[in-house]
Structure formats: C-alpha cells, structure tokens
C-alpha cells in the first residue's frame, strides 16, 4: 500500500486495535465535585466522540467514548459558593493552614494520582488523539511539575522563615493566597497545562474551581476521587458545561479573584469583560502565538530541518509554542525545501497507540475544514503544496501540508493555523522576518537558525524586546518548567514557571512592628509558642 493510499485506509476496524489499547468501557460521567463531595448529576450530558474513527463494513465513524455533565447556572453558583465558603475571606482552614501542612495534602494527591496513570494515558490517546509516547510524557511531566512546585515552595518558605530588621522595623515577609481561583486549561495539554495553574493556585492556599477544556474532559474523571480525598471540603471544585451557562455566572458574580485561562485572546477578553470589578481581578493568561523560525543563509541544514520538523509538527502542530511560520533565506530556500519536505513525508501517521507514529487524527470537529480553507486561499494566491503527501483529508485526519512560497497576502501568513499546515516564506533582506515579528499581534517566541555569532548576536538584541524567548538553533518550546514561560502583546499575561507560578497565585504579605521591647517580647512569644502559622521561624526540610 502506498503512503498516499494509506491516508484513506488509516482508520482501523475494532478487531484491529490491540487489546491493551482498546477503550472497552465508556466513561459516562454522572458526577461533579463540589463542597468536598461527588454530587450526582441526572441532567443533560455532552456526548464525547474520539478523533479516532472506526471502520465497519463501508462506513467510518468517530468512536463514542462517553459523556460528561452539562451543568446550569444553578450548579455553577453552588460550586462558586462552595469555593467562597472554603476560602472564607482568608479565614478558612486551607488558607490559614501552614505551608508544610498544605504540602502534605498535595503530596497525598500525587500519591493517589500516580495510581491512575494508565487510565489517564489511555484517555489522552482516545479523547484528543495524542500519541502513546506523548500521553505518557504529559502524565509523567505533570507529576514532575507538581514535585518541583513542592520543592520550589519549600525554598521560598525557607527564605521567608527569617525576620528582617530595617530602619527600626521588625518584619516577616511571606506569600499569602489571593482568594477564589478559576482555572481553565487548553485541549492540547489538558492535563499538564491545567495543572500548571491549578497546583500552584492550590498549594499557595487558594480555593479553586476548575473547568476542563471542551476537549479533554473525561481524562480528569479518574482523578476526581483523589482530589476529594486529598483536600479539605470545597477547596477543589469542578464545573462542566457551556461557557455562557456556567462560566459567565462565575465571572459576573464578581467573586472570582483570579482567572487562570489558557486559550484564545477572544475568549479571554469576553471573560474579563464579564467581571464587574476588573481592577480586583488578577489574570494569568496563556494565549495565541505565531512563532517564527528564521533560517539564515549559513544555517546547518541537517539540524535545522530536524528541529523545524519537530517544531512545526509535534502533536500535529497543535501547540502554542509550535513554529507556525518559517522564513528561509532565498539562497538556500530550494535546498531547505527539498530536505524539509522529504523529512515531513517520512513521518509516520496512524493511530495514537501505534509504534513510532508522529501524525494522528485531529480532535477539533471543524479543524480539517479550517485547514483546508487556509490551504485553498494560499493556492489561489500563488503558493503550492510542495510535499508529496500534503493536504490529504480523511474524516478527522489531515496529512501535513508544506506551503511555498507564502506571501503576506495569504491568510496563513498571519492567522494561527494550530494544525499541520506549514507556511514557508523566502526572504532576501533580514528586515522582512524582523518586520513580521515586530508587526505581529503576538510575541511569545522565535527560533534563529545560523552559525555566525555576530549575526545571531545582532538579531538577539532587538528580538528579546519583541518576544519572551529567543531559541538559537532549536525549536520553540515551553520547557524546562523551571524557565519563565510567558509572552508579550496578545500572547500572554503573567509568567508561568515552577517558581513564577507560585508568585502569580499569591501576594507578598508581611507582619511588621516597631523595634520596641514590648513588640520584641510579643513576637518572640508568638514564635516560641508557635501560636501563629504565618509568623513563624519553622524551617521546612
């Protein structure tokens, strides 16, 4: 069977799926987590279909894998009240708990979470089409992120355990929680990026409501019991359903103190506008990006092609950090295109559980049609699909398409494709890609490929004022998680890394007193008798 023909035979019959990867039990979720209990739901549900299709006789249909609750405004406000009660204006058990005690709760959750690895990995594959290898990596990376967050918080708390004496004032400065946090993660990393906000929000003492992304809901189901058993009542709550019905009431109540959202700037703007007290709402946002790769005339082609293929097509290009447009110097454009297309066409496509698979079906219902519209627009304006197997569609599958030469008149030049379509732009003057980045609405990252230190240095200096990460001879990426992850312009608000996230979900607060004998006696007594959890010199090992 030729590779081009395989696109139209890509989906298996049920009997062809290896037994250990079959999803034999549908996940009919009938509960949501509120006020420390798994409350039963008897109302309408949202059916969930996998991007994986199943062949049966002459038909090919997406596999039905389960359903989840479609809550209403009533349940949404009950969930909000649960979080408000748990936080209790900072008087609640969780926000007044010592850092060491909160860490123990999170460690208990990690212990329980580890036992659900196989279930979550399977649902990552079936629900969003992520490969087995990448699904396992996402789960393991999330565990590592939680552990690293715990260790980072210990360091912060150790540094805060001492008193500062300045200008006759005794003070102790620590991190304090902000209130009720609404966490909303993205479908492409529904576990990792949701937890990248949820865990630091929790461990710093906030009460949390989290809404899983529209795609990637069921994979959180195996973890609900772990949340319920690991944290005090009302500290962790889940909400499901249409945003207008369940999220709008939360925001318009004015009782959400922090919005942690990873998605589109359009939705972020709507959410922020719904809050009646915007100056009291703190936002941590991860939004769109149109990261560019700049390939200079002296770029080492083998490594550049390798990084560019991974950068553009890892998880089908469905990453905010993906390389979404490539600028290639005219003098090497032909050589680069040939090598790049050969590498793209060598990628394996198939089902998520298959060995060495690279390209899988797309979970978003209308994504193939959207990608096709971008390709058609580029073709009509003079570009071509220059790789052999590009642009073939079969139901939820879209074969990667390399478009060349792309010009500013084409939609793909400026629109974020978030999928396996790669625009390649030839340039002669370096100001062309620099102007693109300068004029872009987005400012997350850029990749530079070349060998001349002087030229690269001259590019770095202006680019660090346009984006928040400049990658030299490597793809754009988030990790390692200890590095700052943010963006300029419409790409982000707030910084997420292990330590930065702890800072954005809390506020530096201090207890201070003039250095009098009476105040020294009071503070010494409080510390010695451990009567305050905030004012303390306890050292976490």
Sheet with most strands: strand arrangement: 15-18-19-14-13-21-22
- Average of pLDDT: 96
Tell me the Rg in angstroms. 25 Å
- Note the gap between the termini: 60 Å
**Number of E strands:** 25
Tell me which CATH architecture of the largest domain applies here.
Answer: 3-Layer(aba) Sandwich
Strand residues, percent: 15-25%
Structural class: alpha/beta
CATH class of the largest domain: Alpha Beta
Q: How much helix is in the residues?
A: 25-40%
Q: Within the CATH hierarchy, at the fold level, what is the topology of the largest domain?
A: Aldehyde Dehydrogenase, Chain A, domain 1
Q: How large is the count of helical segments? A: 17
Query: Uncertain spans, ≥5 residues at pLDDT below 50?
Result: none
Number of domains: 2
At the fourth level of CATH, the homologous superfamily of the largest domain is Aldehyde Dehydrogenase, Chain A, domain 1
Oligomerization state of this entry?
single chain
